[in-house]
């Protein structure tokens, strides 16, 4: 997986026109945030063969074995107020799912908000971090980790995780996935809000499904009804039939990632 392989036939206007590649790094997100503060252009990609201190949502670790996964962070400079940045989480998930479908031939689905699953197994996680004032977004770094060549996983995630190779039954070219991601990101970026939400919902593994919500105010079950433009999940609670808006919580979907 080299910069030259990815940029060959890339054909994008801005996504990945600048790629900074590392054989090893502690965190692509950390480095990308530094670059963004130093003025790196919109669409700059930081890519690593392995990262030693990757992070997921809620401070969880993300393992990136050397030569087996994709660890990348895309620098974005959206012209939107901070309140609208949540849309980028949905957009990033859509771009990854579309890229995996196109480059690996797998039916990738989005488990709200932005885990990517194939056949009920997690293959990708994301972490978006924003640098902003109350009035203006300076930059957003969209970090993406994709399991590609792994054949074994730690016991605590072995029941819920998989890799593109295992699911496709063949070896997937990592450069093809990264190139497709950049192309799909640029396409999704150009969509209207309405069109992007339609595309996201069409890829959803959560909408219409039975879910369990674990939040600060307790745990409940219900049926996922949809997603708002602000990125919240709408859940009709079993206990009272009320539709609740979920923004910050762990949501399990029946039949996905080990939740029965």
What's this model, at a glance?
With 260 residues, the protein is an alpha+beta fold. The protein has 6 helices and 13 strands.
Structural summary, described in words:
It is a single chain. The chain has 260 residues and is of the alpha+beta class. The protein has six helices and 13 strands. The chain has helices at residues 3-7, 28-37, 86-104, 164-168, 174-189, 193-202; strands at residues 19-25, 45-55, 61-64, 69-76, 109-111, 115-118, 121-132, 137-147, 210-215, 218-227, 233-237, 243-246, 250-253. The strands form two sheets. Strands 1, 2, 3, 4, 5, 6, 7 and 8 form an eight-stranded mixed β-sheet that branches. A hairpin with a 2-residue loop joins strand 9 (210-215) and strand 10 (218-227).
SSE topology sketch:
Blueprint (H helix, E strand, L loop, with lengths): L2 H5 L11 E7 L2 H10 L7 E11 L5 E4 L4 E8 L9 H19 L4 E3 L3 E4 L2 E12 L4 E11 L16 H5 L5 H16 L3 H10 L7 E6 L2 E10 L5 E5 L5 E4 L3 E4 L7
Parallel strand pairs: 1-2
Antiparallel strand pairs: 2-3, 2-4, 4-8, 5-6, 6-7, 7-8, 9-10, 9-13, 10-11, 11-12
Helix pairs in contact: 3-5, 3-6
- What best-fitting shape do the alpha-carbon axes yield? globular
The total of beta strands comes to 13
DSSP summary: helix tally: 6
Largest sheet: 8 strands, mixed
Low-confidence stretches: none
Helix content: 25-40%
The averaged pLDDT comes out at 91
